[in-house]
Design goal:
alpha+beta, 947 residues, 20 strands, elongated, single chain, 39 helices, nine-stranded antiparallel sheet
Length: 947
């Protein structure tokens, strides 16, 4: 039962607004409560975007770029026309001043001053009324931020960012080693230095790799210059040079802050102060299955790193994972989260790591770390498709020798390559991932296959594939061209070659490509996972009873359909609402089926029946008294009724109504049992069943009274049964059996009809949310919704009633009698029976308008279920194998600061080499402006504010 999950079917394609938020890394803002909105004098401020030209306030620093300016309260964002050259996301609370510039005629320009003193000039190129409206909305949004007090929070927040001290005049490097870790050794009597800014375990246990080989000093120098001119943390402007510097590799000390800035998790940390600390207080003294799983994996998380050989690292990792699983119980904890969290904690504080995990699991890698891992399996299918398209020879060879690509690629994606290659290189890929998005995983993966293409064509099995990949990753620090005569060519490492192939040859893989491929294969993966979950659930049953596996599959299908219609709480069991829907799928008298004819259409409506008998059946099958049912409970419960003979069914029905299980029915329970009969027979034709219930009640009370102790009246001498209370034992099983067998209709019901009313049939495949298929497809999917269909049915019914053609015909639940029959005379088990006659006539009438009747009809629409060829089993096995052990790499060892190195050179010359490497990744960026536009933008740099 624990494998049953309906979340996959709840997926909806992201809207345009959601995609915009994802692009700008903006978190979803919770709605402001109505009382708070009235108190602050502002409700939901309208969003708006406008065409604009962005110019940098500092002259000769950056070119001007045309694009779109977005007002997404409480954020202001900009993206260039190509959506990759320039963009920024600014919290409105960091905007200190907005002025309109006194520019040449026809130019509408604004000057924005940010917290860090930058001046951004935005030329609004839309029509004047549109520009006025945008400015008005911007003014309202800024006022709202001021009233909420968010602008006061900026000062305290930026102090937690390392970049603030880096660009300050004093600097923060006095107490740091070359790799960025802190010097904790102090003179006697001097306390260790205290820092306000956040940092990870690397500050104490050093960062992986040799700082001289990684050229940490040069990278810090380049980033310091960039951050001084282009803002930092909350106000960072991402120009082409930012992407170039990220591709070269972030310096150890800045890596954590840049990860949260580029991913957008910094905005979550900024807008949720104190949330992480409160979560730690909430989980104290609690326990859960996720906590137990976390404990198992703690010491298997990057054990080669010194920080996780100490209690400080293990405790920090435990707190982060427990806090996340507590905040997101539906996701909980998934194997692989420990690797990611452990790697991130080297560079980030616990709070920073927590919010970055939130962004990773919810936005960057949705579904990767869910119980079904559907996001990972989907991206593996997308990756296989891209390999088939771009590297057909490798794909064909893998199919010929039956090598599963996902055996190696699934751990790559799950751990962001951290568990597969040396950490110093995996963190470089993580830098690009947080900057450029999930497409980096696909680009790097394809580049790995292409570079090793010739060797891959020689492998014959999965073992050879994994061995080849292990050897390649271990050699990433070696020269890619060791025999070249050119020293600069020899200096190019295999990892640099990997990035070059990834971002140049596979630059065609864009975010749009990934989204399109995901839409294409989503339904295939959902069907595959559901099929696998079904087989697992049936295989994990303790007993099938007298059911076959196929019949158990029908029960599972009905249960899954019910869970999709009425999702249960996030547990492994279902409650009464879901049980009612499930029962209506397999039990004829648990649903109301009616044929509706209104002159415009003829349809069959099926409604879930509501009665005390269904609740009684729920608790009857709840043998563990947990107030909910598992898949095993349903199978066992159905097994106890569907294969019974006459006597067993009578005993089952008796026990169903014997509340205290003492072997007797009270008078109230006899009345309740009679009401159950009436509920089951409510749509049957004629009065045969009504007469049978009436006869049952008469005989039951007559014979029940005769078995009671007799009481003789002293005055009259008459003998009468002793009076007992309504809740006293009254009718036993033997008497109940005798009363039932005295009636031919009830005997027939218990002999065949009761078991036959439980029908296990093939459930038609549920419709999955349709993939986007262009404008017309989206328009049709928005029109043809279930709500709109119900609205049309109601409208047609009202029109049918108006013209007198509305008819409702109820379908009988038993359907044995098709003629009206007069009820037979009541027979007594005590007094002699009297002869009776019955007459009947064919039923050939229907009731119009609001009246109802029943007919004997049966309509079944069964659609064959389709089986997907894609199996998730190899992927799940690969995950378990991949995270059991991680290969240690010597290159990840922290370097000794005192060692001399041939790579130590003059800073100026070293900087040039770093920038040469930067330029190797840069292609020309088109600003989208003509020469005239550029001249106009330059003029705005000297424009004065309007007075």
């Amino acid at each position: 039962m624990s494998t049953i999950s309906t979340q996959l079917r709840n997926f909806k394609e992201p809207t345009k607004d959601q995609l915009t938020h994802v692009f700008f890394s903006i978190p979803e803002v919770p709605p402001v409560p109505l009382k708070d909105a009235e108190k602050l004098g502002s409700g939901d401020i309208e969003k708006m975007d406008i065409n604009a030209i962005l110019s940098f306030g500092a002259q000769e620093v950056e070119d001007s770029y045309a694009g779109k300016l977005h007002l997404l309260p409480p954020y202001l964002a900009f993206s260039s026309l190509d959506r990759k050259s320039v963009r920024f996301t600014l919290p409105l609370s960091t905007v200190r001043r907005v002025e309109r510039l006194n520019a040449r005629a026809g130019v509408y320009a604004l000057s924005l001053s940010t917290w860090h003193g930058m001046k951004i000039i935005v030329q609004l190129t839309s029509l004047r009324p549109t520009a006025d409206l945008f400015c008005s909305l911007l003014r309202e949004a800024l006022k709202a931020e001021l009233q909420r007090g968010h602008m006061k929070a900026v000062k305290g927040f930026v102090k937690t960012c390392y970049s603030e001290g880096l660009v300050s005049l004093s600097g923060v490097s006095d107490n740091e080693r070359e790799d960025g870790s802190l010097i904790t050794e102090t003179k006697e009597g001097c306390p260790p230095p205290e820092t306000e800014f956040h940092g990870g375990l690397g500050l104490q246990f050093k960062f992986p790799g040799d700082p001289k080989k990684l050229r940490e000093a040069s990278k810090i120098k380049l980033w310091t210059t960039y951050l001084k001119n282009h803002g930092r943390n909350l106000t960072l402007l991402r120009y082409p040079q930012c992407t170039r510097l990220v591709q070269v590799g972030l310096p150890n000390r800045l890596r954590g802050e840049m990860w949260e800035t580029l991913s957008g998790s910094i905005y979550l940390r900024y807008s949720n102060p104190g949330v992480y600390d409160q979560l730690l207080l909430d989980i104290q003294g609690t326990n859960s299955t996720s906590f137990e799983d976390i404990e198992k994996d703690l010491h298997r998380s990057l054990p080669e790193y010194a920080g996780y050989q100490a209690d400080e690292g293990i405790s920090a990792l435990r707190r982060v994972l427990q806090a996340y699983s507590h905040r997101n119980p539906e996701v909980g904890y998934c194997q692989a989260m420990n690797i990611l969290a452990a790697a991130i904690l080297i560079y980030m504080s616990e709070e920073q790591t927590f919010w970055l995990l939130e962004v990773l699991c919810d936005r960057l890698l949705p579904g990767y770390y869910s119980p079904t891992m559907h996001g990972t399996l989907l991206d593996q299918r997308v990756f296989e498709s891209l390999v088939t398209r771009c590297l057909p020879m490798i794909s064909d060879h893998f199919q010929a020798v039956d090598v599963q690509l996902s055996v190696a690629s699934l751990p790559w994606f799950l751990s962001l390559y951290i568990n597969s290659m040396p950490m110093v290189f995996a963190f470089r890929i993580a830098d690009c991932f947080f900057c450029m998005g999930p497409k980096v995983l696909f680009q790097v993966g394809k580049a790995i296959l292409k570079i090793n293409g010739e060797k891959l064509l020689q492998i014959q099995d999965d073992g050879g594939f994994l061995s080849l990949m292990r050897e390649y990753f271990a050699s990433l620090g070696d020269s890619a061209h060791p025999e070249s005569a050119d020293p600069r060519t020899r200096a190019i490492t295999r990892f640099q070659e990997l990035l070059l192939v990834s971002f140049r040859e596979f630059a065609v893989i864009s975010d749009e490509t990934i989204l399109s491929e995901r839409r294409k294969y989503r339904n295939e993966i959902v069907n595959s996972i559901e099929s696998f979950s079904k087989r697992s659930a049936i295989r994990n049953l303790k007993t099938l009873g007298r059911f076959t596996k196929e019949q158990a599959g029908f029960i599972y299908d009905a249960l899954y359909k019910a869970m999709c219609e009425v999702p249960p709480p996030p547990t492994t069991r279902i409650g009464i609402p879901t049980f009612q829907v499930f029962l209506s799928e397999i039990l004829t008298w648990a649903r109301n089926e009616k044929i509706v004819i209104n002159g415009f259409q003829q349809r069959i409506d099926c409604e879930v029946a509501e009665h005390e008998l269904i609740h009684r059946l729920f608790y009857f099958w709840d043998t563990s008294c947990k107030g909910s049912l598992s898949f095993q409970d349903l199978v066992s419960g159905l097994d106890g009724v569907m294969f019974n003979d006459l006597m067993e069914n009578i005993e089952w029905f008796f026990n169903l109504h014997d509340k205290n299980k003492d072997g007797y029915l009270t008078k109230d329970e006899v009345l309740t049992l009679s009401e159950s009969f009436l509920f089951i027979f409510r749509h049957e034709i004629g009065d045969a069943y009504l007469g049978a219930v009436s006869k049952f009640m008469t005989n039951a009370f007559e014979y029940g009274d005769s078995l009671l102790p007799q009481h003789t009246d002293d005055k009259t001498g008459a003998t009468e049964p002793q009076v007992i209370g309504q809740n006293q034992p009254y009718l036993n099983l033997a008497t109940f059996r005798m009363v039932v067998l005295a009636d031919e209709v009830l005997e027939s019901f218990f002999e065949t009809d009761l078991s036959a009313s439980f029908r296990l049939e093939l459930v038609p495949d549920l419709e999955l949310p349709p993939a986007s298929s262009g404008f017309l497809g989206d328009l049709w999917s928005n029109i043809a919704t279930q709500d709109n269909k119900k609205m049309f049915n109601r409208l047609s019914d009202e029109l049918g009633k108006t013209i007198g053609k509305h008819q409702i015909i109820y379908r009988p639940t038993i359907g044995r009698f098709t003629k009206l029959e007069e009820p037979t005379a009541r027979e007594s088990l005590i007094s002699p029976p009297t002869k009776t006659t019955s007459s009947g006539s064919p039923l050939n009438t229907v009731i119009t308008s609001s009246s109802s009747s029943t007919i004997d009809s049966s309509i079944h629409d069964n659609a064959p279920s389709s089986a997907s060829a894609f199996s998730p089993m190899p992927h799940l096995k690969a995950v378990n194998a991949a995270f059991m052990e991680r290969t240690p790499f010597a290159i990840d060892d922290a370097g000794d600061d005192d060692d001399d190195s041939d790579l130590d050179m003059v800073h100026g010359e070293d900087d040039d080499q770093v920038m040469d490497e930067v330029d190797a990744f840069l292609e020309a960026h088109d600003s989208g402006l003509t020469e005239a536009d550029k001249e106009a933008a330059k003029d705005l740099l000297h424009a004065e504010p309007v007075k």
